UniProtKB/TrEMBL annotation:
Transmembrane segments: none annotated. This is Transposase. InterPro entries: Integrase_cat-core, RNaseH-like_sf, RNaseH_sf. Residues 660-669 have a biased composition (Pro residues). It comes from Streptomyces venezuelae.
Length: 708
C-alpha cells in the first residue's frame, strides 16, 4: 500500500537524519532549509522516495536555532564537554574521509594510517562511501557534512539539539518586559518592597495605563518573580542603598583620571568612619567623619582629618595646609618610618625644607588640581581663598557621581577592610551590618583613633604594594605608594611647598562686610571683642575699600577673634568681653544653642543687654558639666563635638606664629570654673612626646627681610 504524504510550505520534515523546513515548492522542485540553516533544492519525486524521509506531526518553531546571531566559537567553547568531544570525533572522521588521515596531515599520521579503504590514492567518492558505511549514514549526508564543515568549521558538526540555547523569556510578552524595566527605574530611589505585592501592583497599573485596562496581564506570581529576577540586577526587595548605589552609575563608559606626576590631581572627599569614638567625660559614643586627600599619581594619602560628625569649611582649608606640611614622627614609631627612608635624596630635600628632619615617611606634595565633591564645605570661601592663594586649580565632580572619583572611593573601602574593621567600636557601613553591642565595645577616643590611623597610613598603607601602581616597564610588578613617589621624583622633580607662618590666620573666615572698631571694641555675632591694640584704631576708617576692618574668627573657638595690624604686620588676639575662662570650649554650635535659649526666654538681639543674656545662657550650659547625667543625648553630643573642635583649633593655631595675646586686666579677678583643678606633673612625665608641642622652625619672611 502506497503511503501518501501532503507537503506544504512551512511544514517540517525529516530528511537524511536532519530536520528541514519546506520554504518553497515550484513544480517538481522542493526547496528545503535545515535546522542548521543550510539550504538545498531537491526534486519532489527524489524526496518522497528517499528512505530517510518522514513527515512530522508537530511543527518546530522557526526560531529553533537560538544560536543565530551569536559567536559560534564562543558558543562552542561554552558547550558541555561531551558535545564538544562528539563534534571533534566527527571532524576526525571527515578529515579521514577527505585526506586519508584523522589529523588531516600525513606528517601527523597515527599508527596504522592510512587504512586501506581510506588510501589517498583512492577516489574521494570511494572514501566518502566507505565512511558512510562505517558511520551508518547515507553518502549524501557525508557530502552534506563535508560541505557545511568546509564552510562553517567545527561549529557545523555540533549536534544542534544539544547545543540549543534556552531563552527563559521566550513566552513572556515584550510589553511586560518593558513595563518591569520601566517600573524598576521609576522606583530605584524608593524604599525596598516585596516583588509580589507593591512592585507587581505598580507594574500592572503601568500596563493598564499604557495599553488599556485588562489588555496586557502579568503572568502568574511565581513566573513574575522569576522574570523580575532575570531582568533586574537589583530586585525591588534588595536593600535600598544597593539600588541607589547602582542608580548612581553612569550609563556610559567610565572615564579615567590620569596623573603623571605627584600633585597633578589630588582628590578630596569626606566619609563617615565606620568606628564609634568614645568620650570618657560624657561616658557616651559618637560618630566620626574622615576627610582625606589622595594623590592620584602615587596613590599616596597626603593628609587626613578625623572630626566629629559635621566637617566644617575650615577643616577642609587647613587640610590643604596639611598636604604641604610634613607629618611629624611619633616617639614610639620605628626609625624605618622616617622621611629619609623614602629612598629619595634626603639631604638635598633637607637643605630646601628643614621640616623634613623630624618628618614621617609620607610624601609632601604641592597640589596642582583639586578634584572634590559637591559638599558645602568644599565650596566655601575658605577653600576658594586657599586655592587662590596657592594657585591651585579647582574641579568639582558631578553630583551623586562617585565614579568621577573612583580612586578615593575605592580607598575608603580599603580603609574599612584594613583599619576600621579591626578597631574596637566598628559599626559597619550601614545598619544591616551593625552589631548588637557596638556602643559597649567602643573604647578609643577620637584623638586615639586619629593616632592609630596616622600609624596605619605611615606604617602600612604607604608601604603596601598597590594593584594600581606598576613598575615602569614591568606591568606585572606592583609597587607601593612610597616607591611610586620616589620614582616620580626622578622624572618630575621635587617641588618646594610654601611655608607661610601666618597661614592659619589667613585661612580663617572674615566677618561679612567687615566691622567698625567702636569705643567698646568690635561686634561679631552679637558678641563684643576687644583688645588694647584696637585703641589706636577706634572709630578710624580702614584703608580697605569699604572702610571697614576685616575681623577673622575661627568657628571652632568663638572666645577669640583675630585682627591684623597693618602698622606692624602682626596678628592680634581679640577676646570676648564676657568670656569666663579660656579653658571652656565655646564654638558656633554652643553659640546657636545659647541664642536659642535666649530667644525662648524672650530675648531680643536689639537689646543692649543681649550679650549679657548670651553670657548667662552660656554659663548655664557650662554649669551642666557638674551633672552630665542630667543631659539629653543632643547636649552630650554637642558638648563632645565642641570640646574636640576646640582642641583641633588649638592645635592648628599652635602650628602658626602665635598671635599677640590679650594681656589680663590688672584689677580683674582670676576666672573661676567649677570642677577644674590643677594636676601636678607625674614623675617621668617630661619624657612623653607631644607632637603638637613642637615649635615651628623659623621661616624666612620677605617682608621682615626687606625692612631689616
Amino acid at each position: 500500500m502506497d503511503q501518501r504524504h501532503r507537503i506544504a510550505v512551512a511544514d517540517w520534515i525529516e530528511f537524511e537524519e536532519e530536520q528541514h523546513q519546506v520554504t518553497g515548492i515550484t513544480g517538481a522542485l522542493v526547496r528545503l532549509r535545515s535546522a542548521s540553516g543550510h539550504h538545498q533544492t531537491i526534486m519532489l519525486s527524489r524526496l518522497l522516495t528517499d528512505a530517510t524521509f518522514h513527515t512530522r506531526t508537530a511543527q518546530i518553531p522557526e526560531t529553533t536555532d537560538t544560536t543565530v546571531g551569536l559567536d559560534p566559537g564562543g558558543v562552542l567553547a561554552l558547550l558541555p564537554k561531551d558535545v564538544r568531544t562528539a563534534a571533534l570525533e566527527l571532524e576526525a572522521h571527515l578529515k579521514e574521509a577527505t585526506s586519508g588521515y584523522q589529523s588531516g596531515d600525513r606528517l601527523d599520521a597515527q599508527a596504522g594510517e592510512p587504512r586501506p579503504e581510506y588510501q589517498p590514492a583512492l577516489p574521494l567518492t570511494a572514501r566518502v562511501e566507505a565512511k558512510a558505511a562505517e558511520l551508518g549514514l547515507a553518502p549524501r549526508r557525508i557530502w552534506q557534512l563535508v560541505e557545511e564543515w568546509e564552510e562553517n568549521g567545527l561549529w557545523a558538526l555540533v549536534d544542534r539539539r544539544k547545543a540549543r540555547l534556552k531563552n527563559p523569556l521566550r513566552n513572556i510578552d515584550e510589553r511586560v518586559i518593558t513595563a518591569i524595566r520601566e517600573q524598576a527605574a521609576a522606583e530605584r530611589h524608593d524604599s525596598s518592597s516585596s516583588v509580589s505585592t507593591r512592585f507587581r501592583r505598580r507594574t500592572q497599573n503601568r500596563l493598564d495605563e499604557d495599553h488599556g485596562p485588562g489588555t496586557v496581564l502579568l503572568p502568574k506570581e511565581d513566573t513574575f518573580r522569576r522574570v523580575v529576577k532575570l531582568l533586574l540586577t537589583r530586585s525591588p526587595s534588595d536593600p535600598a542603598y544597593q539600588r541607589i548605589s547602582d542608580a548612581n552609575q553612569p550609563d556610559r563608559t567610565f572615564g579615567n583620571v590620569i596623573a603623571h606626576r605627584p600633585g597633578q590631581v589630588v582628590m578630596l572627599d569626606t566619609t563617615p568612619l565606620d568606628v564609634l569614638a568614645f568620650d570618657p567625660a560624657m561616658n557616651d559614643t559618637y560618630n566620626v567623619e574622615l576627610t582625606l586627600a589622595l594623590d592620584v599619581a602615587t596613590r599616596s594619602i597626603l593628609a587626613w582629618r578625623l572630626t566629629p560628625l559635621g566637617t566644617k569649611a575650615i577643616d577642609i582649608g587647613l587640610l590643604l595646609a596639611d598636604v604641604m606640611t610634613p607629618e611629624p614622627m611619633r616617639a614610639d614609631w620605628a626609625d624605618a618610618l622616617r622621611y629619609q627612608m623614602l629612598r629619595v635624596p634626603f639631604e638635598r630635600h633637607l637643605s630646601v625644607d628643614e621640616r623634613l628632619a623630624e618628618a614621617a615617611a609620607r610624601p609632601v606634595i604641592y597640589p596642582e588640581t583639586l578634584l572634590y565633591d559637591h559638599g558645602k564645605p568644599y565650596k566655601s570661601d575658605v577653600v576658594q581663598r586657599a586655592c587662590r592663594k596657592w594657585k591651585i586649580d579647582m574641579q568639582d565632580a558631578r553630583k551623586l557621581k562617585p565614579t568621577d572619583k573612583p580612586h578615593v572611593e575605592r580607598l575608603f573601602g580599603t580603609i574599612r577592610e584594613q583599619f576600621s574593621m579591626h578597631v574596637a567600636g566598628y559599626k559597619g557601613f550601614n545598619v544591616a551590618h551593625r552589631g548588637k553591642t557596638v556602643e559597649q565595645q567602643a573604647r578609643w577616643t577620637l584623638d586615639e583613633i586619629a593616632e592609630f590611623f596616622a600609624e596605619y597610613v605611615v606604617a602600612v598603607y604607604q608601604n603596601q604594594h598597590h594593584t594600581g601602581l606598576h613598575l615602569q616597564g614591568f606591568p606585572d610588578l606592583n609597587i607601593s605608594p612610597n616607591e611610586a613617589y620616589a620614582m616620580a621624583l626622578g622624572s618630575a622633580g621635587f617641588v618646594d611647598c610654601p611655608r607661610d607662618p601666618n597661614l592659619y590666620y589667613e585661612l580663617l573666615p572674615i566677618a561679612d562686610g567687615g566691622r567698625a572698631i567702636n569705643a567698646y571694641g568690635v561686634e561679631l555675632n552679637y558678641l563684643v571683642y576687644d583688645a588694647p591694640v584696637l585703641y589706636q584704631f577706634r572709630r578710624a576708617k580702614s584703608p580697605y575699600p569699604n572702610g571697614a576692618w576685616p575681623i577673622r574668627y575661627d568657628p571652632r573657638n568663638l572666645l577669640h577673634a583675630y585682627f591684623h595690624n597693618p602698622r606692624d604686620d602682626k596678628w592680634y588676639t581679640l577676646r570676648w568681653t564676657k568670656a569666663l575662662s579660656d579653658l571652656q570650649a565655646f564654638t558656633d554650635i554652643t553659640l546657636r544653642e545659647a541664642k536659642r535659649l535666649v530667644t525662648l526666654r524672650g530675648g531680643d538681639p536689639k537689646d543692649e543687654d543681649y550679650q549679657q543674656q548670651i553670657a548667662d545662657a552660656l554659663r548655664d550650659l557650662q554649669n551642666r558639666t557638674d551633672a552630665p547625667e542630667t543631659w539629653s543625648k543632643a547636649d552630650r553630643k554637642r558638648r563632645t563635638r565642641d570640646r574636640h573642635r576646640a582642641d583641633a583649633q588649638a592645635q592648628d593655631e599652635a602650628r602658626s606664629l602665635p598671635a599677640v595675646p590679650v594681656p589680663p586686666a590688672p584689677d580683674s579677678a582670676p576666672p573661676t570654673v567649677a570642677s577644674l583643678h590643677a594636676v601636678p606633673d607625674l614623675p617621668g612625665e617630661d619624657d612623653d612626646f607631644d607632637p603638637h608641642s613642637i615649635q615651628p622652625a623659623e621661616v624666612w619672611n620677605p617682608r621682615t627681610s626687606q625692612e631689616s
